[in-house]
Amino acid sequence: MAVVLIGVPGAGKSTVGEILAKNLNLNFIDTDTVIEARANKTISNIFIQDGEPSFRELERQVIKESLLVQDSVISVGGGALMNDQTRDLVSQQECVWLQTGLAKAVERVGMNRNRPLLLGNVRGQLADLMSAREPFYIECAKYTVDTDELNAEQVAEKIAALIKIEGK
């Protein structure tokens, strides 16, 4: 079983993923962390030095490999579902969209310089990303959890309850 967490930057995918995996005694994979380790550079530097297409191909490969790890919670980058092949793979999993409103996402992301697609006007860039990516999140998500009024532990508990109910 793989539980895949999707959502925009600031949705809490990595934080919630770690908690959920620990609570369910599953492996946790943050694909952005794997990508950085494999490339031996930050995602920002991959974007700058190699370009977004190179990053997206590496991301697709890492997600495909991660989905082969049994009993895992996988956090994928916010734009991963823009790739048709990745979307097909993810939609076959227990996919959970951590839905977050613009105000809360901006608050959580702040001025994080490690997010290459959010440089400059963070609020405007994030609004554009949310608008472009939302149809893909809707397409792939088996479950949707609104994270705006919940802390990470509460989101993880809600996901665990949803998966148990579905698993009966």
Search tags:
168 residues, alpha/beta, Rossmann fold, five-stranded parallel beta sheet, 8 helices, globular
Could you describe the 3D structure shown?
The chain is α/β, with parallel strands linked by helices and 168 residues long. It has a single domain (2-167), classed as Rossmann fold (3-Layer(aba) Sandwich), CATH 3.40.50. It has helices spanning 13-24, 31-39, 43-50, 52-66, 84-91, 102-109, 122-140, 152-167; strands at 2-6, 27-30, 72-75, 94-99, 143-146. Helix 3 crosses helix 4 and helix 6 packs across helix 7. The protein is globular and about 40 Å long.
Radius of gyration: 15 Å
- The CATH topology assignment is Rossmann fold
Shape: globular
**Biggest sheet, strands in spatial order?**
2-3-1-4-5
The end-to-end span amounts to 14 Å
Q: Averaged pLDDT, please?
A: 87
> How many helical elements?
8
The total domain count is 1
Q: What is the top-level CATH class?
A: Alpha Beta
SS elements, strand count:
5
Going by CATH, the architecture would be 3-Layer(aba) Sandwich
Residue fraction in strands: 5-15%
> Structural class per helix/strand content?
alpha/beta
Strand-and-helix sequence, N→C? EHEHHHEHEHHEH
Q: Which oligomeric state applies? A: single chain
CATH superfamily membership, which one? P-loop containing nucleotide triphosphate hydrolases
Low-confidence stretches: 111-117
The major beta sheet can be summarized as: 5 strands, parallel
Helix content: 55-70%
